[in-house]
Design goal:
Oligomer: single chain
Shape: globular
Number of strands: 12
Distance between the termini: 93 Å
Helix content: 40-55%
Structural class: alpha/beta
Length: about 450
């Protein structure tokens, strides 16, 4: 065989390998899309259209975050929220911010209070970060337009000492709509007394004794509100809100009263169940109230998860005992939901008030490890409509979207995956708000 023939044969073989490599890479790229930037000011949203197309007709988009101090995730979510509102018609956002606090925040903003202060005053643990300031400013700026992004809270965890007085004052006023004094009302006296005992005199030994009486009196107050709703149909919306606020407050009380004496992985799992059940009920209340609107749920990745019992956690985390908010909402709304988990490969991470720690090294073959091979800063993977060529990435694979590394089929847990190559910590931005005068509302 002469030299020309040998050269030609080698060229054919080399081209074949190149072709196979390009086809394989092309197939993966059909599943995995690069996100160009996470900068909030960049409004050239063409790179986010892959997410918009994956969401399709879903009316409820749930956005997670690994930990609340993950600054890069917050930046990515801010730009995505802006895109969903301006380009896809999502006009309601439910934040992991307690329900009553957001009622007060919206009330203050409508009266002209600076939006940042309005968020900080009732509940600064969520609001006091530079990245959340950007989201707060954006949400507030839409109030000046006809296309408003309405913000509400779905959580039960509240700033108890600050809000208890305001909560009871507002409830008193709504019950006193007909001008009759409530001071001799047995249900009101019992309810208000026990709310104060529970949230002000935070004594673990008495919580379990107080809660049954609080629950009974809360049922009586809800019954009174239901009767007032029939009597004053023009105020139905106000009464409905307060019925749900009482349920949410009761959910918080239950969560506190049934807190385990000592925390271990099993007791923590069971305790999480109480909070997430009420969070789901609060979210569902807003979903029904705004049934003709598209809704963003902005919370942690754990809360948007479902089917956790199908995963194998690295630690014995009792996933069989866990039922997050996402599971409850999925059972009720199913195909109307599109959830997006955020994962990272390296960097620093941690809760907002904790010292940031180096992101644990990802194991070889994990989802994050494989996605990092592409050398891109940000990637999106549609798990709901995943191509067969990409299933090997997520089937029976390790991933760490929450605090515990786990193994399983991730398309059963979330609909989408947003990959971040390097995480940066979201340092505390504001000083704590001075709550020395909780009566000043």
């Amino acid at each position: 065989m002469n030299a020309n023939k040998v050269y030609l044969l080698l060229l054919i073989v080399l081209n074949s390998f190149i072709s196979i490599s390009q086809n394989s890479q092309g197939e993966i790229n059909n599943c995995i899309q690069e996100i160009r930037t996470i900068e909030f000011e960049d409004e050239d949203f063409f790179d986010l259209d892959c997410i918009g197309e994956s969401i399709g007709d879903a009316k409820i988009v749930m956005l997670g975050e690994h930990q609340h101090g993950d600054g890069t995730t917050l930046k990515a979510k801010n730009r995505l929220i802006k895109y969903l509102h301006e380009e896809k018609g999502f006009n309601i956002i439910l934040n992991e911010f307690d329900m009553y606090s957001m009622v007060k925040t919206n009330e203050m903003i409508s009266k002209g209070e600076d939006p940042i202060i309005a968020f900080l005053k009732p509940y600064d643990s969520w609001s006091d970060s530079k990245n959340n300031e950007i989201l707060i400013d954006f949400v507030s700026s839409t109030r000046k337009d006809s296309n408003i992004l309405k913000a509400f809270g779905l959580d039960i965890a509240t700033n108890y000492h600050v809000l208890t007085t305001a909560y009871l004052k507002d409830l008193f006023n709504i019950l006193n709509v007909n001008g009759n004094s409530l001071y001799e009302n047995k249900a009101w006296k019992e309810y208000s007394t026990n709310v104060i005992k529970l949230f002000y005199q935070f004594n673990k030994d008495s919580l379990k004794l107080i809660f049954p009486r609080l629950e009974e009196s809360a049922d009586s107050i809800i019954l009174q509100l239901s009767k007032l709703k029939d009597k004053y149909p023009d105020k139905t919306e106000d009464f409905d809100l307060w019925i749900q606020l009482i349920k949410s407050n009761l959910g918080c009380a239950r969560w506190l009263a049934l807190r385990p004496e000592s925390y271990n992985l099993k007791s923590a799992a069971l305790h999480h169940f109480l909070r997430d059940k009420q969070m789901a009920d609060n979210a569902a209340w807003y979903i029904e109230k705004y049934k003709n609107e598209k809704i963003i749920i902005n919370t942690s990745t754990f809360h948007i998860s479902r089917n956790l019992s199908t995963l194998t956690p690295k630690k014995n985390y009792h996933y069989d005992k866990l039922k997050p908010m996402g599971q409850y909402l999925w059972e009720k709304y199913a195909d109307e939901i599109y959830s997006i988990a955020f994962v990272n490969y390296s960097g620093i991470s941690g809760r907002k008030y904790e010292l940031a720690k180096k992101v644990p090294k990802k194991r070889k073959g994990s989802v994050e490890y494989e996605l990092n091979k592409f050398g891109k800063e940000y990637l999106f993977l549609d798990l709901k409509n995943i191509d067969l060529s990409c299933r090997k990435l997520i089937d029976n694979s390790y991933m760490t979207p929450t605090l515990v590394e786990s193994k399983g089929d991730w398309s059963n847990i979330y609909e989408g995956l947003f990959f971040i190559k390097r995480m940066e910590h979201d340092n505390r931005f504001f000083k704590p708000y001075d709550h020395s005068d909780p009566l000043d509302w």
